């Protein structure tokens, strides 16, 4: 008994009693073990702290001088476009910092309605609904739309948020092999017994930049009476002739029923997501989608930035075309320098080193070298490099190597 009291006193200096403290000590032990496992596997993700705006050139804590950033999903460079920033400031000034409410209680402003209408117009769909993120749009859709009478057929490499969204719904679940239309057809045949069939796929897959075979998927969907849903986060704003996305690129805009996408990548890069599609579906989501019903409205500044990004894209096609040209140039030059770049002709240009640990070590190493260099030393090496025949080799050290290298846009003044 005394021993128990002494242990209790040792574990707990705070007046909370010994039981919760010992549970906490046990939890700490479990967590430490788990964390050590991640470190040992070489998959520990450390976060570099950016001290500047997002852009092709950034400043990072602990590294003197700027570095080139190939890791963000700031595909069009709009997250630091002066007009986008100005629109955000104006919305902040006019509509305040935030709504302190969800949409249906007292959180809908005119700018939310305007942005939803603009998104629907951009995608040439009937209506659109905003969410705090595309993760939320994916969490909200399937549960609200599908019942135990229905079926969802999902590419095995779909984004985590689609997978989680599908987990939340009670429909029958079929998983087809990545991009494999023959397997999808087999699963569609099996799924004929259900009321609705929904094929769910990323438009472009973020890890390798590979593109879903939407023409085949839509053909099968029509043959087997299925709907097609596309998560187009890595295509909205820049794929296709006018940047509408993967469905435009592959000529199936009229066959993809539902699109979810993000405002947090090409469209200004702040945050927010949406579903666009049939008006009745959007109406149902406003009644039933839990992340819409139970999470705060998008802040006005975020709405202002995204709205301006869409204006810029709808006014003029030049940004989209310049992105496509830069992608081709980057892929060509990297391959000529001896790197293997995988994926389709998409601005996600995964530099394949073939080993996750190696990629992570290489990124850290490049930053350490950068950190260790004095200004004078850097200038001396830059001079040397520019005089040497393999002048661009030195650049490799300055890239943050990740699997995605899409930020190829020009820096805005
Ligand atoms: N879907 C895909 C394919 C994504 O790549 C991402 C983000 O990385 C999301 C959804 C989530 O988007 P958001 O950041 O708006 O939640």
TrEMBL record:
Family matches, as PROSITE patterns: AA_TRANSFER_CLASS_2
Family the UniProt entry places it in: Belongs to the class-II pyridoxal-phosphate-dependent aminotransferase family.
Superkingdom of source: Eukaryota
UniProt region (Disordered), positions on chain: 366-393
Biased composition (Basic and acidic residues): 366-379
Record InterPro entries: 2am3keto_CoA_ligase, Aminotrans_II_pyridoxalP_BS, Aminotransferase_I/II_large, AON_synthase_class-II, PyrdxlP-dep_Trfase, PyrdxlP-dep_Trfase_major, PyrdxlP-dep_Trfase_small
GO BP annotations, alphabetical order: L-threonine catabolic process
Co-factor requirement: pyridoxal 5'-phosphate
Limits of the Aminotransferase class I/classII large domain: 67-364
Keyword terms of this UniProt record: Acyltransferase, Pyridoxal phosphate, Transferase, Transit peptide
Any GO MF annotation of the entry: glycine C-acetyltransferase activity
Name this polypeptide is given: Glycine C-acetyltransferase
Cross-referenced PANTHER family: 2-AMINO-3-KETOBUTYRATE COENZYME A LIGASE, MITOCHONDRIAL (PTHR13693:SF102), CLASS II AMINOTRANSFERASE/8-AMINO-7-OXONONANOATE SYNTHASE (PTHR13693)
